[in-house]
Write a structure and sequence with these properties.
single chain; 292 residues; Uridine Diphospho-n-acetylenolpyruvylglucosamine Reductase, domain 2; Enolase-like, domain 1; 3 domains; 14 strands; globular; binds flavin-adenine dinucleotide
Length: 292
């Protein structure tokens, strides 16, 4: 399969990239690792006339951990996420998502920005990032704006990004004390296959061990990664235990809106949402009570 014809741009700064995007608008497309875009171009699903490679912009590859935030550059690769001490220590659920994404070859090329930018409902990184309360930082010639990932995904392949904007970094707020998150995905096969269901859960406990805040995010069971709002309501204000997590799992299953497809029936996926929610809450609780 041949690629359609395109002009290739290789800016060295974000500003230069923004100028190219401002000039060509919807005719241009950003190229990061290319593991999603190249496949779509070969299949002729997308045929951008202008490709803007951002892999030579050094500032997009940074990772910074401060007292307030962890800031991850859009071109930080999935392999980098797997290997980063800071990610494993502070954002272990994101590290887990990264470890489960594709194969070593894919992980070496694939970027965090591309995983978010492709807006696939089954992607591995959006659920843990949303569970941690992450925000996307978008830049254009008009300036910078921040969009919570909760509001970023609009549908399969569609996001709140405008054609002249570039996703420059993901900001994750520093975790409160006594908080933690878990992530689990299941697929029909182990590698190289789309997830069947994936869930990330986050909980924060108060000084008395009561759940103060909870976020549960489910992938593959709707057009975008979905928050399990009724499950979160069940958790907040309660003391964590297995019975509570099982009730939250059942509520998350009801919050999900899967469809029957060749990977599994909607009923099976709802059941799996329940199981993965309970298990990721167990992990989150363990992390919240064992963090140093
Ligand atoms: C064999 C195979 C296995 C895979 N397995 C998995 C898997 O297990 N889990 C999973 O989640 N995904 C999987 N993928 C999909 C893909 O590898 C990931 O989504 C990857 O993270 C995409 O990143 P990328 O840098 O390659 O993005 P690209 O392909 O470069 O870009 C993807 C999209 O995002 C846009 N984009 C990229 N960066 C930016 C930016 N900074 N600002 C604005 N827009 C941007 C591009 O314009 C494009 O529309 C797989 C793909 C293949 C081919």
């Amino acid at each position: 399969m041949l690629l359609p014809k395109f002009d290739f741009h290789e800016p060295k700064t974000v500003n230069e990239a923004c100028q190219i995007l401002a000039e060509y608008g919807a005719k241009a497309r950003i190229l990061a690792g290319g593991t999603d875009l190249m496949v779509n171009m070969k299949k002729k699903i997308l045929s951008p006339q202008q490709l803007v490679s951002i892999s030579r912009i050094p500032e997009l590859k940074n990772l910074e951990a401060s007292a307030d935030h962890i800031r991850i550059g859009a071109c930080f690769t999935v392999a980098d996420l797997c290997e980063s001490d800071a990610i494993q220590r502070h954002l272990s659920a994101l590290a887990e998502g990264a470890k489960n994404l594709g194969t070593p070859l894919i992980r070496n090329l694939a970027t965090i920005g591309g995983n978010i930018g492709s807006a696939r409902p089954a992607a591995d990184l959006p659920p843990p990032l949303m569970a941690y309360g992450a925000q996307a930082v978008l830049s254009s010639l008009s300036g910078e704006r921040t969009v919570p990932l909760d509001q970023f995904f609009l549908g399969p392949g569609f996001t709140a990004m405008k054609p002249d904007e570039i996703l420059t970094e993901i900001q994750v707020p520093a975790l409160p004390a006594s908080s933690g998150a878990g992530y689990i995905n299941i697929g029909v096969r182990k590698a190289q296959d789309c997830n069947l269901v994936n869930v990330a859960s986050f909980i924060a406990l108060d000084a008395g061990g009561i759940i103060q805040n909870a976020r549960i995010v489910m992938g593959c069971v709707g057009p975008i990664p979905l928050r399990a709002r009724s499950a979160e309501k069940i958790l907040i204000g309660q003391k964590p235990d297995t019975a509570l997590f099982t009730r939250a799992g059942a509520a998350a299953g009801s919050d999900s809106t899967p469809i029957d497809d060749f990977r599994g029936t909607a009923a099976y996926k709802k059941d799996m949402v329940g199981v993965l929610t309970r298990r990721t809450l167990d992990i989150a609780f363990h992390k919240a009570t064992h963090r140093q």
